[in-house]
Amino acid sequence: MGISVDPPEISRSQAQKSGxxxxxxxxxxxxxxxxxxVLHPGAGPKGADIARPAEFLLDSNGIVRWVNLxxxxxxxxxxxxxxxxxxxxxxxxx
Amino acid sequence: MKRRWNWPIWAGFVVVVAGLFSYGFFARFPITxxxxxxxxxxxxxxxxxxxxxxxxxxxRPQVYRGTIFGSIFAMVAVLLVAFFSxxxxxxxxxxxxxxxxxxxxxxxxxxxxxxxxxxxxxxxxLLSNSKGVALIFYRGFW
Lengths: 94, 142
What we know:
The structure holds 2 protein chains of 2 kinds.
Chain A: E1 2-4, H1 8-18, E2 24-26, H2 31-35, E3 39-40, E4 50-51, E5 54-59, E6 64-69, H3 79-93
Parallel strand pairs in A: 1-2
Antiparallel strand pairs in A: 3-4, 5-6
Chain B: H1 7-21, H2 23-26, H3 30-33, H4 37-59, H5 67-89, E1 112-114, E2 120-122, H6 123-128, E3 132-137
Antiparallel strand pairs in B: 1-2
């Protein structure tokens, strides 16, 4: 699922536009973003605090099994990387 | 005598400007976004053409035009490339370190947030219904 500071209306139009069926969660005051220490202070519109790109893969117990913290805003985990990490976890768990 | 049109200067400048503005297009594909080689290639071609044009202008000023506007175009082109490089290789790398982010083996903090339909979603609910969860923090569309 995705998490950003976008309000639900923006997330809804974005999900419809892109055909996303997974949840896009709204953390408008960046409380959870702060809790995960993935805040990018002042990087949003009019100096608003937003999330930096970050990807976590959790197992069914909520344990972090894979993390990707980019050093370049333009470079994010590609879907196939996340799927690869997920399938590796699946095979490791068996 | 009318001096000849110095086309490499114009072509070079147009290619450099195209190299700058095509980033919006190339950024849509990971292969040209992760490293902007397509834009750098255009800059290289453009600067090479400008260089050829300037050599013609200054080497044979009685034949080719462009000593003045060619110099101006070349300077603007260099500034555009410098601006692009500053943004791509410096500004985009100013990402917080996130030293306190959950690490592999740690439990991810639970949360409740509204989804795009205004429905509250908890991490615990998602976990109990699945084999795993991918948490993707993104900058947002605002």
